[in-house]
Design a protein that fits this description.
This protein has 759 residues and is of the alpha/beta class. It is built from 27 helices and 28 strands. The strands form 7 sheets. Strands 20-21-23-24-25-26-27-28 form an 8-stranded mixed beta barrel, surrounded by 4 helices. The longest helix is centred in the middle third of the chain and has 24 residues.
Length: 759
């Protein structure tokens, strides 16, 4: 078993379930479930008693009729001894009566038969439930051998086991009844023994019934039928207090009544689960093996019941339930996170998972199909028609093989995994021709234009090869080459740059994505009030790659969350550094609107804040590309969740298509940033000034801070100040800088009056 197995997610879930189950067993947390299982076990059989222990039932024995009761007991003992009985146990709390002759006769009978007659005694008196326990009068017990008849009940009044020794160390009645019984600490009553099969004799009918017994080989217990302290036993309801002892003795005679340690079943089932995790290669097989574990638990209940053994099953039930819950939650997350909401196809996160898992299963390649002009096509289709369009493309791609799994990235890329052993060049060319046939949607014929990229190389990690295939599909479009295939030969060909995405994956793995801070200034005070965090990347050759180019690639790689997490961590580290230097100012971090589809982005932000112990009020999230928000309700919930912690939100690039009025109206933004497209035309266009003035007025009325980005000259700065803009940023104010430079700038508080050469 290799390390990957022992440390896999499924294995960890088994470990957690086992640990919790053992803890629950150690403190008897699930005793009610165990009791239920034991009650069920008692129904699994109906065994007859051995018949060697008989109960002689005496009517109510009380202080008021003690004299009559003592006479009857003396008579019963005498008759049984005369008949040849060798072992007689009196399980009655004998009392002195107001008739000395009756008491004296009983004492005499006990004294004459001291080797054959034994008294049951609860031992030292103590209060239980506020009532003092009753025990035989000492005068009767003098000179007689006594046995403890104490019985413990659970919280429901059931008797499940009887200890071998009482509180004062005397042997229990249950262990004294069977001659030569085995030595053990306690016996668990075999619930399958039918209490009604115990031979019973009414004291008034002893003479008539005694001839039906093998008297010398029968142990007799004289007990009361009613004393007001009836006990409950499984499968037989309420019984007199002698019955549990007799049933326990019958259990000892059968050689059953053992208790399996509480940890036995959880460990056995836990190990079986670990084996299923290791052996099962498919989800179906894992489900079958899990069902087998459940059946094994049920079988354990049945087998131990039939065998007359007792075990704790609640802990094992908890183990299986916890494991099922944890795996169910993972499955839910997978289905939620790995499924595209429009097409209902697996997304590229699922592709990355599956492609990584396929390593070592032969020569495989990844194929990416790019749908051209998809945005313009979708502009004229309803949600249902969009789904039908994507499904038809998926169906066409599926002709590759019946088991081929088609993936969709939620944008314009389809993908699948293909065996490299086939003639993939001819196959992909033919497949493209099929996919490119027009699609009929709602009686409308829609053209389909695609390019195909594939990576059949043997180099690089699966994630890198995915990125390479995406880049190949893009390259095919740029080169007017319908199908572009990356193979090992391509890596040695200058024509093929292993592409931006592959290099980005390496940069991410090596943590080579850095940040810079672009300061923001308050127009009224002339003071710096914060900065925007900008992602920066230099490739291996030292070339600066524009964020506008590499960030969309991260989205196509299905690793946008990972990039955002890295940038947030670096921003939080910068904030902590600023806090420690006494220069703490809010920092703005860009987050794509496409990430506001579920709670993951909130978890990423919260995790970063916790790890770096930063004041949440110093973090501002700039939401970009809000036109791509498909579910405003979910997005609003995420924003409100983070705002409750003190985080503020800014609508980035307002005024262009990516930042629209719907987002401004439906999401609780604290700030609006006017796109530099308008700012840079401000000085030369009256129309632009009117638009900007309108935006500023709207922001002011809505209680939002206004920020102008892209300020490049003094004239623009002056115009914005005169129009009432709150804040601004741009190269005229300050260029993006390192965290250390920003700290020094704040410490010096250099901003006094804007100058063309400033910054």
């Amino acid at each position: 078993m290799h390390r990957k197995f022992w440390l896999s997610e499924r294995s960890r879930h088994v470990y957690i379930a086992i640990a919790i189950a053992l803890l629950a067993g150690a403190i008897s947390l699930l005793k009610p479930l165990d009791i239920t299982a034991w009650a069920i076990q008692s129904k699994l059989g109906d065994r007859e008693s051995s018949g060697t222990i008989a109960l002689v039932e005496v009517g109510a024995y009380t202080d008021q009729n003690a004299a009559e009761g003592n006479r009857r007991i003396a008579s019963l003992v005498s008759k049984l001894r005369d008949a040849g009985a060798r072992r007689i146990f009196v399980n009655i709390p004998l009392r002195r009566s107001d008739t000395p002759s009756a008491d004296l006769r009983l004492k005499r009978v006990f004294a004459e038969n001291r080797n054959h007659v034994f008294l049951a005694d609860k031992g030292p008196p103590r209060r239980e439930g506020g009532v003092l326990e009753r025990r035989p009068d000492a005068s009767f017990a003098a000179g007689s051998q006594t046995f403890d008849n104490h019985i413990e009940q659970d919280f429901l009044g059931f008797v499940w086991n009887i200890k071998a020794r009482g509180r004062d160390g005397r042997e229990s009645l249950a262990f004294a009844l069977p001659p030569g019984g085995e030595a053990r600490g306690q016996v668990f009553i075999d619930g399958t023994i039918d209490a009604s099969s115990i031979p019973r004799i009414d004291d008034e009918n002893l003479d008539a019934a005694i001839d039906s017994f093998d008297i010398p080989n029968t142990t007799f217990v004289i007990g009361v039928t009613r004393l007001g302290n009836e006990l409950r036993i499984a499968n037989d309801g309420y019984v007199a207090d002698s019955v549990p002892h007799i049933l326990a003795a019958e259990t000892l005679l059968r050689g059953t009544g053992q208790h399996i340690p509480f940890y036995a079943f959880p460990l056995a089932v836990g190990f079986a689960l670990l084996l299923s995790v290791w052996l099962a290669r498919t989800a179906r097989l894992r489900r079958i093996l899990y069902a087998a574990c459940v059946l094994a638990l049920l079988g354990g209940v049945a087998l131990t019941g039939v065998a007359g053994m007792q075990a704790n099953f609640g802990d094992t039930f908890l183990l299986l339930t916890l494991y099922a819950i944890m795996r169910g939650f993972v499955l839910y997350k997978q289905r939620h996170l790995y499924i595209d909401p429009i097409s209902k196809l697996p997304n590229f996160s699922a592709l990355r998972r599956d492609f990584s898992a396929s390593e070592g299963q032969g020569d495989l390649g990844v194929v990416v199909v790019k749908i051209l002009r998809l945005d313009s096509i979708f502009a004229h289709l309803s949600e249902g028609e969009k789904r039908a369009y994507l499904r038809q493309i998926s169906d066409r791609l599926s002709i590759t093989g019946k088991d081929t799994k088609i993936y969709f990235d939620g944008g314009k890329y389809f993908a699948f995994i293909l065996d490299a052993a086939i003639d993939y060049e001819s196959h992909l060319s033919g497949l493209r021709a099929i996919v490119s046939q027009p699609i009929i949607i709602a009686s409308k014929s829609i053209d389909v234009a695609v390019t195909v990229g594939a990576d059949f190389s043997s180099r690089g990690l699966p994630a890198h090869r995915m990125s390479s295939a995406i880049a190949a599909a893009d390259h095919a479009r740029e080169a007017f080459q319908p199908v572009f295939i990356v193979s090992d030969a391509c890596h040695d060909d200058d024509e093929w740059d292993h592409s931006l995405t592959a290099r980005l994956a390496e940069a991410l793995a090596e943590d080579r994505i850095s940040i810079k801070l672009q300061p923001q200034v308050d127009f009224k005070t002339g003071k710096f009030v914060g900065a925007e965090v900008l992602a920066r990347w230099q490739d291996e050759a030292g070339n600066e790659i524009s964020p506008a180019r590499f960030i969309p690639q991260f989205e196509r790689m299905a690793r946008l969350d990972e990039l955002t997490s890295r940038i947030l961590d670096k921003a939080m580290a910068a904030l902590r550094s600023l806090q420690e230097s006494g220069c703490a100012l809010p920092l703005s971090v860009n987050v794509s609107a496409v990430q506001f589809v579920d709670e993951r982005i909130a978890e990423i932000v919260e995790k970063s804040l916790r790890e770096y112990d930063v004041d949440p009020s110093l973090l501002k999230i700039e939401v970009t590309e809000t036109a791509r928000i498909e579910d405003f309700e979910t997005a609003c919930q995420i924003v409100e969740r983070l705002r409750k912690q003190g985080i503020t939100f800014s609508l980035d690039d307002f005024g262009v298509g990516s930042a629209n009025l719907e987002a401004l109206q439906r999401l609780p933004f604290d700030e609006v940033k006017i796109d530099q497209l308008f700012i840079q035309q401000l000085a030369g266009s009256c129309k632009t000034r009117a638009i900007v003035e309108g935006v500023l007025h709207t922001a002011s009325k809505a209680g939002m801070t206004s920020v102008a980005e892209g300020i490049e000259d003094l004239e623009t700065h002056t115009w914005l100040s005169s129009l009432g803009c709150d804040r601004g940023q741009g190269y005229f104010i300050a260029k993006p800088m390192l965290v250390s430079q920003f700290t020094s700038l704040i410490e010096l508080n250099r901003y006094v009056t804007p100058r063309p050469d400033y910054g």
